[in-house]
Amino acid sequence: MVSITYRKACVKLTDDVYEPAEDSFLLADATLGYAKEGMKVLEIGTGTGFISAVLQSNLDVDVLATDINPYAVRCACDNGVRTIRADMFSAFKPVQCFDMIVFNPPYLPTLEEDKVPGWLNYAFDGGVDGMRSICMFLENVPLHLRPNGIILLLVSSFTETEKIKFLMEEAGFESQIVLKEKYFFEELMVFKGILKDKTEKMKSSGNIT
């Protein structure tokens, strides 16, 4: 069986599951840079479990991962990542319990004729404008993240980065690009968002005492 090793983690690969690539490595680096010991971390769309495995191999954190692809769930579990099958947040109640949530979304603009057969399509298909999964994620993630919690979101220059900034602000996040890397056909970026504590914001504005 083919495997890859990165930052102390050895991850086995399998058919029908997205193989870690440049975007995976960039997001793994960002996750290691901002995760802290003892954090409760959720990774959405884990694939092989690569990013969560890297995190677990370097820090003492409580990691849970999800994927809609049943082959990915099995692969991630085989790689030592606690993984459940879910369509994004579908398996969770709206409880703010995670300190960090990480997502490498399908971001390629995809028409009907561009789709690939089988479960692997979920790893690439971002809808007509590449924004479908990103919009769904940003709409729902505040329900599962503790105040002042962190999200790390991988995006590509194929997507509307200004729109992503706007959507993050609308969802209550202070956002910034913390890592970026240029390739011959695109630029990959990691957005970091910190969920504003609404109570503290209201106190500072004098609305509550």
Written overview of the protein:
This protein has about 210 residues and is α/β, with parallel strands linked by helices. The protein has a single domain (about 20-205), classed as Rossmann fold (3-Layer(aba) Sandwich). It is about 30% helix and about 30% strand. It has six helices and nine strands. The strands form two sheets. A seven-stranded mixed β-sheet has the order 5-4-3-6-7-9-8, with helices on both faces. It has a two-stranded antiparallel sheet with strand order 1-2. Strand 8 (about 175-180) and strand 9 form a beta hairpin. Helix 1 packs parallel to helix 2. The longest helix has 13 residues, at about 20-35. It starts with a strand and ends with a helix. Residues about 200-205 have low confidence and may be disordered.
What topology does this entry show?
Layout: E1 3-6, E2 9-12, H1 22-34, E3 40-44, H2 50-58, E4 62-67, H3 70-78, E5 83-85, E6 98-103, H4 132-140, E7 145-156, H5 161-170, E8 173-182, E9 187-195, H6 198-205
Parallel strand pairs: 3-4, 3-6, 4-5, 6-7
Antiparallel strand pairs: 1-2, 7-9, 8-9
Helix pairs in contact: 1-2
